[in-house]
From TrEMBL:
Signal peptide: none
Biased composition, class Basic and acidic residues, residue ranges: 68-80, 164-174
Protein's UniProt name: Family with sequence similarity 133 member A
Annotated region described as Disordered, given as residue ranges: 19-38, 68-249
Low complexity: bias regions: 103-119
Residue ranges, compositional bias (Basic residues): 90-102, 128-139, 223-249
Native source organism of the sequence: Catagonus wagneri
InterPro entries found in the cross-reference section: Fam133 (IPR026766)
Family label: Belongs to the FAM133 family.
């Protein structure tokens, strides 16, 4: 069995293009572009002159428009000026009418003097009523001030009563202490000054405060210990449950 021949014949591309012939192009060729129709120098000059004439015509049109606009502005100015003159004339007429009405009212003022006097009396009554209201307000404020003073005095009296009660309690306590000492130690001499009794009273008050603090601290410590015990029990139960689950697994 021999090998298969996979060789292909070589084809020259230039020879193939010649064999196909000229290609059909869709657009114009270079020769067509070079042979295009061109204007002469005279025709170019005419075109430039026509452009200049067109610009002149535009300038003339703009000038005409400006003239028309100026005319319209002058007309509107004349209308505004005429309107202002008419408004000034109307104002003058109104002023004249007011003067005439004032003259007619002056003739009738003699008859209205009585009414004006009554209106004056009413104004005076209003003023007097305002003054009375002001006086009432001042009297009310002055009545409020002694009430405030009485309230402050009552507060001070309450404070004094509290102080007097505290002092009487101290005296009673000191007397009871002295009686107890006399009964317990009849041979001892009585205390010479009241300062010692007062100091004893203060010492006992401080001792009571210390006892209360100690009781509170003990209660807090007991509560903390209970919480710790509960936490330990809970953790032990968790460990037991986890161990039993591993064994079953």
């Amino acid at each position: 069995m021999g090998k298969r021949d996979n060789r292909v014949a070589y084809m020259n591309p230039i020879a193939m293009a010649r064999w196909r012939g000229p290609s059909q192009s869709a657009g114009p060729t270079i020769q067509d572009y070079l042979n295009r129709p061109r204007p002469t120098w005279e025709e170019v000059k005419k075109q430039l002159e026509n452009k200049k004439k067109g610009s002149k015509a535009l300038a003339e049109f703009e000038e005409k428009m400006n003239e028309n606009w100026k005319k319209e502005l002058e007309k509107s100015r004349e209308k505004l000026l005429s309107g202002n003159e008419s408004s000034s004339k109307k104002r003058e007429r109104k002023k004249k009418k007011k003067k005439k009405s004032c003259r007619s009212s002056s003739s009738s003022s003699s008859s209205s003097d009585s009414s004006s006097s009554s209106s004056d009396s009413e104004d005076e009554e209003k003023k007097q009523g305002k003054k009375r209201k002001k006086k009432k307000n001042r009297a009310y404020k002055s009545s409020e001030s002694p009430t405030c003073e009485s309230e402050s005095e009552s507060k001070e009296s309450v404070k004094k009563k509290k102080k007097s009660k505290d002092e009487t309690e101290k005296e009673k306590y000191i007397k009871s202490l002295s009686k107890k000492r006399k009964k317990a130690y009849p041979e001892d001499k009585p205390l010479s000054s009241e300062l010692s009794s007062e100091s004893d009273y203060e010492e006992e008050v401080q001792a009571k405060k210390k006892r209360k603090r100690e009781d509170r601290e003990k209660a807090t410590e007991k509560a903390k210990k209970k919480k710790k015990k509960q936490h330990k029990k809970h953790s032990k139960k968790k460990k037991k449950k986890s161990g039993s689950s591993h064994k079953s697994g």
